[in-house]
Amino acid sequence: MDEKHKKENPLMDFDLLKKLVVSIGDVSEITGVPTRKIRYWEEKGIIKSEKEGEGTTRRYNYLNIKKILLVQELIEEGFTLDAAAKKVEKRMENISEVFRKLADNPTSDE
DNA sequence: GTTCTCACA
DNA sequence: TGTGAGAA
């Protein structure tokens, strides 16, 4: 049906996604993962968060949330943190690449 | 609301 | 592996 992008799709608001940065509490609500667990994973080095300027609060962007989501799914399937982390790292490479591509060139039809 | 540490299952 | 409780 749609062969070309005539208008902007709200579901493809990559600019918003790239600017989307929330705290650990919001991530726990979105991912359903307790804040304790998120800090625990980061403590193990599975996930990484960015510090907000002068604040010490962790800030997570879309990629971080996606990573947490992937880890959670894998662990629930029976994988361990290290195993899940490895698989997620692999996935993140593709995800970040595709995401960057789409966000930088949303008018490309492929 | 967030951070950290100590301790437990 | 994940959580509870206390303290700031």
Automatic annotation (TrEMBL):
Gene3D superfamilies: 1.10.1660.10. It holds the Pfam family MerR_1. One of its GO terms (molecular function) is DNA-binding transcription factor activity. The keyword DNA-binding applies. InterPro entries: DNA-bd_dom_put_sf, MerR-type_HTH_dom, MerR_fam. Residues 21-90 form the HTH merR-type domain. CDD domains: HTH_GlnR-like. Keywords: DNA-binding, Repressor, Transcription, Transcription regulation. The keyword tRNA processing does not apply. This is MerR family transcriptional regulator. It comes from Fervidibacillus albus.
